[in-house]
């Protein structure tokens, strides 16, 4: 297939392009480089464009006959979404509407969408499956949930074939070391710890050690970025078999505490980090762990790199000599 990868210069998008190329597909990256990296675009043509610009998208679709679109482009900082919600609704929801309209004009009917576990809000069960109530706590999560609802409506009205994949905590890096996680600012725990281990003057703290967990710190479900990319490939193949809209949760089905992550980073890097404990942050649930049973049953997918040390070791190889 020829696949338009929107946001293909970002963390997950770049890994997706590599897997597409390895499986015989042709990726064309569309990115405005507001957060992505040019050096991460190594597999396929790169087009610099804003997906909120209908004329620019028409030019992109006019140059290529795409079989499908993979949509990774979004603003994704929870705190920023609270401070500037209009930015999130405009960039996430508004730009997706422009993209969907362009797809309709050019006859492209397949879409794989990067969603998030933030659509669920406070967990009400030990494992979060697709039937869990959706009560997002911030504009970022609400923007992603709105897009999912739009995709379902477009599937019913126009025959769009769409899959939404809800990530929990993407982590790790490609085993080649060519691409990895590099955000500015970096808000994710594992890369912040690794940047500190690599010698960067970065303040990392544990927020709360009095949660009802095995060691008092929050539990999160970490999934290797290449396992996420594999799920996207399988979702792409599903679009040929079944019409309509479907959503899948993606995680390892088990969680690790913040202290367990810190300890694993110290073991892998051989460096003591001296991470201090601070008070709880507002809005942090004690535990967030996915049930990926639907993805296993319908996509024949399961994570191959579920071990925390495997995930962190792949990321550490990247952080020791980042390419961008």
Summarize the structure.
This protein has helices at 11-22, 54-63, 78-83, 85-105, 139-158, 189-197, 225-241, 258-269, 293-299, 308-320, and strands at 2-6, 26-31, 45-48, 68-71, 110-116, 161-167, 169-171, 205-207, 219-220, 222-224, 245-250, 256-257, 276-278, 287-288.
Overview of the structural elements:
This protein is of the alpha/beta class and 324 residues long. It folds into two domains: 2-171 and 223-250, Rossmann fold (3-Layer(aba) Sandwich), CATH 3.40.50.720; 189-221 and 253-320, UDP-galactose 4-epimerase, domain 1 (Alpha-Beta Complex). The protein has ten helices and 14 strands. It has helices at residues 11-22, 54-63, 78-83, 85-105, 139-158, 189-197, 225-241, 258-269, 293-299, 308-320, and strands at 2-6, 26-31, 45-48, 68-71, 110-116, 161-167, 169-171, 205-207, 219-220, 222-224, 245-250, 256-257, 276-278, 287-288. Strands 3-2-1-4-5-6-11 form a seven-stranded parallel sheet, sandwiched between helices. It has a three-stranded mixed sheet with strand order 12-9-14. Helix 4 packs parallel to helix 5 and helix 6 (189-197) packs parallel to helix 8.
From the structure above, extract its key features.
single chain; 324 residues; alpha/beta; Rossmann fold; 2 domains; 7-stranded parallel sheet; 3-stranded mixed sheet; 39% helix
> How many domain modules?
2
Could you tell me the mean pLDDT? 94
- CATH topology label of the largest domain: Rossmann fold
Order of helices and strands: EHEEHEHHEHEEHEEEHEEHEEHH
Name given to the CATH homologous superfamily of the largest domain: NAD(P)-binding Rossmann-like Domain
Q: What general form does the structure show?
A: globular
**Spatial order of the strands forming the largest sheet:** 3-2-1-4-5-6-11
Low-confidence stretches: none
For the secondary structure, the number of strands is 14
* Gap between N and C termini: 29 Å
Largest sheet: 7 strands, parallel
What is the structural class?
A: alpha/beta
CATH architecture field of the largest domain = 3-Layer(aba) Sandwich
What's the CATH class label of the largest domain? Alpha Beta
Share in helix: 25-40%
State the helix count.
10
Percentage of residues in DSSP E strands: 15-25%
The Cα radius of gyration reads 19 Å
